[in-house]
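Morning. Coffee machine broken again, so started the prediction first thing and wrote up yesterday's gels while waiting. Chain of 226 residues, entered below exactly as on the submission form.
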Amino acid sequence: MPLRFSSAFSVVRAPVLVLGLLSALLLAACGSSPRRVSYETEEFDSTTTHTRTYAATEAQTCEAARRALLSQGYMISAANPDLVTGRKSFQPAFEVHVEVEFRVVCAREGGKGGKRSTVAFATALQDRYGIKKVNSSASVGVGAFGSLSLPFAGSDDAMVKVASETLTDELFYDRFYALLDRFLEGQGGEEPDVPSIAPEAPRPSAPLAPPAPATPFPVKPVPIPG
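Came back before lunch.
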């Protein structure tokens, strides 16, 4: 008579399944620990990455920034005496599109000895796009039953933003500021001093000539009656 081990096998396999389930739960708990986000490393201890100070006016500094961006192929979207923004597109891979938006703010700052200086704040934002395939569908009329939407094999490609990040590479900004400094030197750097024109001294007026002596009228003797 054959022996049946099904019940014994089930009893032996149950603890193994329980242990496997507990192990999976422990691994899931370890894997679901919160990840450290990028902004937690912000310490606000450096002011040299995004700022530089120039002995020039706001308009001169922003004009040099505009020329620096234009020389590198950026499309200028705004150019004001205190603000310049530009955008440039990159294609690092076949299905990846990257856009960098550069923003420069020029703020006046008081200098020593009454000299004028400007602080240039530069920030670059990088947006990454990827191709997403969207399936299309067609509507087919079914007479009295209305229309029926049926999917078909065709699809449309659309660019979707998948990431956005502020660039923090110090060498990236160092190269930009070095180029801005070159264009600023081409403008003459500091604002030229306008020589003050002293008011012209009044010319002395010519002395007035003394009035001519009056000519006496001839007096005729009047006869006195005797």
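The helical segments are 6-31, 58-71, 170-186. Going to sketch it on the whiteboard this afternoon.
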